[in-house]
Write the structure tokens for this entry.
Amino acid sequence: MNRQKRKNLLIPLTLLLCAAIGAAWWAFGRNAEAKKASAPSTARVIRRDFSSTVLATGAVKPQVGAEVRVGARISGKVEHLYANIGDPVRKGQVIAELEKADLEAAVTKARAEVKVAGAKVADAASRAKLADLEYHRQQNLIKKDFTSQQAVDKALKEKESARAGLNLARKQLDAARAALEEARVKLSYATITAPISGVIASVSTQQGETVAAGLMAPTFVTVINLRHLQVDAYVDEVDIGNVQTGQRCVFTVDAFPSREFHGTVAAIYPNAVIQENVVNYDVVVQITDPYEALLRPEMTASVTIFLKKRQRVLAVPARAVKREHGKNIVYVPMKTGPEPRRVGIGWKDGQWIEITAGLKEGETVLLEKPDNDQGINHGGNKND
């Protein structure tokens, strides 16, 4: 009986002991985790390559001369329209024709006037030749006293008059020929052709409509050459001073977010572009990758411009550098406690920042400032 009582008493004691051991183990684990969580995060000062970049948003645009608005130089009814949006066209291809019966009649009339003027020149040339012969004959006769001086003077006058008449007829022929050329040019205005090869981007008139040409030629169609595109990137005024022609660029568009297109800075427009009260400058990016059938005008582009490269510079994570009292400070763990140290900074590349003074390669810095200045060794900052 006593043996049974001892057995019954042993079981609760064993359970109580296990519970105590478990509680102690749990408390030890929590304490270790707390110590681990309270340990400050650190990073080492290392050397790495830096590439400074400028980010900008832009759009795909036609190059200068790659987008042309085709219009009419004369008034008239659109007799034929051969263009539809999306149609490819070649340079010189007929896009539209205006009614031209009156223009063709003007050419016919001008051609007839040229013939009349030519006949007048021939008649005047014959008269001038006859007057010249008569003058020479009178000169020979007066040498033999077979005529009078008055007859010689009259022949000279007729000769000069005939020569003047010939010159006048020739000028009238030149004027008739110029009128014919003008009529032909006006007739050519009735046939509208594509000035460049490309694609019809828009059509702003219809067959049968009457267009009136004034100071501004009415636009028929817009032609864009999709083989001559560029990217206009709008760079903030803060960064524009670092951008130069020839620098390498990459950009993406929303239509192909996983594909990068490469290019170079071709030009920087001098005039500012004000967008939502922010001063930007238009940086023209020449596309160097094949892009035909991929890029289209007005696609939004996210552009990265690579400025320079610097190799093996001292760097720490940017979050380790704090701005305090107008100075750049990092905290270096020491035996006597964290030491604030003033540093010089340079380029920033993503999450890293260049250290130009105050630290050496291999040193350790805290990523966060110690709480409430506890344990901070303020006397150790030799750079202040």
Q: What stands out?
A: The chain is about 30% helix and 40% strand. The first helix runs from residue 2 to 38. The chain has four domains: 42-51+312-380, 54-64+226-309, 67-99+190-224, 100-183.
